[in-house]
Amino acid sequence: MKKLLVVLMLINFLIPVFSDYKKGKEAYDKRDYKTALKELKESAEQGDPYALYQIAWMYYVGDGVTRNQKEVENYAERANKILKPLADKGDPEAQYNLGEMYKYGIGVKQDIELANTYFMPAFEKYKKAAEKGDSEAQKKVGLMYLKGYGVSTDLTQAFQWYLKAAEQGNLEAQVNIGGAYRTGYGVNQDYNKALEWFTKATEQGNADAQRNLGSMYYKGEGVKKDTKKAFEWLTKAVEQGDINAAFDLGAIYQKGCDGVSQDLEKCDFWLSKWAGSDLSCQYFIGGLYEDGTEDLTQDYKRAAYWYTKAAEKGDANSRFKLGDLYYEGKGVLQDYKQSEYWYEKAVENGIPGDNYYLGRKYYEGDKIVKDYSKAFKYLSKSSEQGWPFAQYYLGLMYYNGEGVEKDLKQAVYWFTKAGEQGNSDSQNKLGTIYGQGEGVEKDYKLAFNWYTKAAEHNEKVQYNLGFLYLNGQGVEKDLKQAVYWFKKSADNLCVNAQYILSKMYYNGEGVEKDYKEAIKWITKAAEQGDGVAEYNLGWMYFNGECIEKDYKQAYKWFKQASKSGIADAQYNLGLMYYNGEGVTQDFKEAFKWFTKAAEQGDVDAQNMIGTMYALNEGVIQDYIKAHMWFNLACANGNNQAKENRDKIAQKLTQQQIEEAQRLAKE
Predict the structure, then answer these.
(1) Domain C-terminal end among 84, 110, 136
(2) What number is the average pLDDT over the span 392-401?
(3) Cβ pair 443, 434 in contact under 8 A
(4) In 166, 323, 428, 546, which residue has its Cα 20 to 30 A from 224's Cα atom?
(5) Does any domain span residue 456?
(6) How large a percentage of the chain has pLDDT more than 90?
(7) Global model pTM greater than 0.70
(8) Which secondary-structure segment (H or E) carries 162?
(9) End-to-end alpha-carbon separation of the chain, Å?
(10) Domain boundary among 41, 76, 110
(11) Range of 32's domain?
């Protein structure tokens, strides 16, 4: 499949555009990687940084070549030397490309913050040009909103800028707008508008639009299903070099449809034409066969076939997948040695992400025998290469003493490495470590700083940050800030934040007292299965606290909380059955729920069980057991139980009282 493409844009260009680069880029877009690599290398030799970067990208993702970290670093380093001075002078395309290099760690140490320092000025320049009506700039702004480069991802804004470019006749933008309407990506799905924009683009002979029209006729999207027209449009697209249309033709032959018989040979012919020598495409086909989609019916043997094609030529992703199939015996005979063989082959090219992936598989025992020693080996390699996810897991191994002697200093070292690169899990862990003083001197300020770094993308960290503001740990106590962070966390479905936010609205802490908001947030927490929230919500409905009294709702939430093991809820549920509130009176059910609560030490429930034994309610009258339960409740501080015990003692002999006391001690 096509991966992230470097989009060339001629705004304030400070260096000439090499003709070989243009030819190479055109060949790349058509997935003629052999020609692309030849032309790009010729342009690269002339010092074209964009050709150098494009080649680095090809080696990074494996487009037409075997992924090779050394080649990535070679070409990326050469590109970087030329792009950096251009970027420093304000060239937006240089800034854009450098941003991608640092965002994805292409031949450089991954650095999200540094990536944004390049993306942001590039975005501003493109936007200024876009606002003046430059359609290429409008398209680029749309792309940056789509990918979140230098700006928060915003599909609506992406669509609007692409639309501006499309309305000016920008061909690529017209196809993108058609695609947005077809998929409902950034706009309400509308097949008719999709057809309208694809048709506009086909009038200019665009093969991508022709393929989309063919696909829509094949699937009957916005038009009556018409296999004949589908074939016509797909064939036109293929004849113009749109290889993706070949995939659609292959998918049609794989399943067969009206007017087309299933033909697996033709399916393979077209899929092979689509994939060509592109290992990532061969991997993609394998994935479709493995998972089964509307395009290709699930077939593990065909999945293994395509994974093997790519794996034998060096594709790491296919090697990992082939290892999975051998481990599970899907499409191939189960063979653990073959499975491990392909896993080990997958990391031969030294790509940091591959070492991380294998290390994590060994760490988690994911379709492989858990092996901390091997996990440590591969995670260490990836960590030394600067991969933040690996650094986080390596830190965990030191933190937990897994496969290595526990070493909190080393854990902090690797968490810090990863945290400085924006890894929110590491930042959160560091916040906890400094907050609790694990292996380091307790430092609430540092804890606060790390939580702040992690908070934007991690609901647990947002909750922790709110907690620090709530208690004034590492920062001045600020209930409004606490509410702010709890709200962010609650919006991201953190149940603890939802519950504590309900309490703050209930008590008016950091916000004006608002029972409606309190009910809203405690309901959200209860709906996520938080037992305490379920109980409290039931209690509010039962007592008419902040909300109209409703025994049915009270019963519902007490029942949920009881299943979660909340003793107070079990007691209250027992009371509802005992008194017939919201349910038909049922002493046996009452006794059942009182017993569950009593066994957890609930003294009121213990007293009620004693009462039911004494009064012959839902259970055979038994004064000895009544005395036993009253005695337990009394010992745990229930004064009413003491009175009840003393009364029931009058009905017992001394021997029976001693028996009751013996049972209570058991």
Answers:
(1) 110
(2) 96
(3) yes
(4) 166
(5) no
(6) 57
(7) no
(8) helix 155-167
(9) 69
(10) 110
(11) 1-110
Report long-range pairs for 531-534 (Cβ below 8 Å, ≥24 apart).
531/560, 531/561, 531/564, 531/565, 531/566, 531/569, 532/499, 532/561, 532/566, 533/495, 533/498, 533/499, 533/502, 534/558, 534/560, 534/561, 534/564, 534/566, 534/569
pLDDT digits (tens, 9 = 90+) for 272-282: 887 777 788 88
Place of tokens 């540094």: 114
Assess whether pLDDT exceeds 50 at residue 5.
Answer: no
Residue 447 lies in a domain: no
Closest to 264 (Cα-Cα) out of 214, 305, 236: 305
**Looking up tokens 């760690």, which residue turns up?**
105
Name the nearest CA neighbour of 27 among 43, 14, 45, 48: 43
Do residues 248 and 214 lie in contact, with contact meaning Cβ atoms separated by under 8 Å? yes
Q: Which residues contact 255 (CB under 8 A, 6 or more apart)?
A: 262, 296, 297
* pLDDT band at residue 19 using 50, 70 and 90 as cut-offs: low
Q: Is 566 left (phi over 0), alpha (psi -120 to 50) or beta?
A: beta
Q: How far apart are CA 437 and CA 443, in angstroms?
A: 7
Q: Which residue has the tokens 């493409």?
A: 5
Closest of 653, 663, 585, 601 to residue 626, by C-alpha: 663
Pair of tokens at residue 481: 């800030």
Contact 318, 307 (CB under 8 A): yes
CA neighbor of 101 nearest in space, from 71, 124, 123, 79: 79
Mapped onto helix, strand or coil, the DSSP state of residue 260 is strand
Domains contained in the chain, number:
2
Q: Which positions ≥6 away from 329 have C-beta within 8 Å?
A: 335
Instruction: Please provide the average confidence, as pLDDT, over all residues in the chain.
Output: 88
DSSP 17: P
Q: What are phi and psi of 353, to 5 degrees?
A: -65, -35
Residue 90 lies in a domain: yes
Q: How many CB atoms lie within 10 A of CB 360?
A: 17
Q: What is the DSSP letter of 456?
A: T
For residue range 424-462, list pLDDT tens digits in order: 899 989 999 999 999 899 998 898 889 888 877 678 888
302 within some domain = no
What is the amino acid identity at position 320? Answer: F
Q: Which structure tokens are listed for 651?
A: 């009905």
Reduce the secondary structure of 290-355 to three states and give it as a string.
HHCCCCCCCCHHHHHHHHHHHHHCCCHHHHHHHHHHHHHCCCCCCCHHHHHHHHHHHCCCCCHHHH
